[in-house]
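Re-run requested by the PI after the first attempt was lost when the workstation crashed. Everything re-entered from the original request form. Ligand of interest: zinc ion.
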Amino acid sequence: MRRGTNLPRVGGYNRAVIMEAIRCGDGVSRADVASRTGLTPQTVSTVVRALLADGLVVETGSLPSNGGRSGTALSLNAGSRYAVGVHLDPGSTVAVLVDLAGRIVAQERDRLPVPQPPDTFAERLAGTVDRLVTAAGVARDRLLGVGLAVPGPIDPERQLVVFPPNLAGWSEVPLPTVLGEKTGLPVVMDNDATAAAIGERWVGGPHRVGSLLFVYLGTGIGAGIALGDGIQHGDSGNAGEIGHLVVVPDGNPCRCGARGCLEAHCAPPAVVAGHVRRHGPEEAARLGLSLAPADTFTDYGRICEAAAGGDPASRATVAELAELCAQAVRGAVNLLDVSTVVLGGPALPAVERALRTAITRQVNELTLAHAVRRVAVEPSLIGTDAGAIGAASLVLHGRFSPGWSMLVGHPS
Ligand SMILES: [Zn+2]
């Protein structure tokens, strides 16, 4: 648990530290908060009073006496604030409205069949934000902002989406700024896998404290990295590109310019193409694959379904996918020494069992430190919409999680 500080100019920081202690220890007393954060009971009491007055925290009953005075349980007031999260994935956008606890209260999916100019697209997204808020009956002044999760690469310094794959013709687009102008709301942006890791931590509370690697399987493959109390963005904001670790020397060409990357072998489009290449066009007919780009996820699902049903060719394809993913995750675990690997994203459910088995084996039998640690491999608590929930969590995390930038006077 993160500690408070007695340095000057820390009011906002201590408030965020206390919010985090209450969020991660749902139903904690003021005394518990003081001992977890290292802050004095007086400071905790003052800050909690302000949080109660703002409606961010509620008292949820009495706690049994623990030798001394019995305490009052404190919890986040989930319905007090909301955030919108939008995940831009090739071919579609998923938008969610979540409450302060990260729970979805309204949701919308939108297919984007034709390229659109940024302005038109931002206008459309602004309409989505309005509809979500109206559908949930949430007062506009309770909406903190909009988070965008986009496939990498991004330029967070200049808040640019760089070559978004679903928006042909865009090169470097300041989408957060344009959307901010259309909605009148603060807009933040991050890489989708990093956003998913932030969402997992936010929603998971006490179950997701400490270091973790979030492996996101969508149209591409990425990872979000949490080490200790912090999310690792990297110097350019593009840390965690696990999809571009080489798993097959001189393998398939990849969109990054290299060959043999994990994504070029194990992302759904590569899995479908590889399976058909290996077994010929009659295999596509046998499994009923359409091979149209718009149907990639359906085709991928058919192969995984056939594998689950015992079809030998499909089983071999899924087994190879699982072993190659495990190989990349093993490399990341060797490098980062995380104790938890979380798997999520829309391409996961079809292969979850095979993937968990292969990753659990490789990270616990074939890493150098396997004798001294056991790495847990678990499915995401935020499900297949991890990108969108993660996007919304960017807003909550930026507003309410303690960070060094707050301490030095630049609230994030
Ligand atoms: Zn690559």
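Saved to the shared folder this time. The two ends are 20 Å apart (CA to CA).
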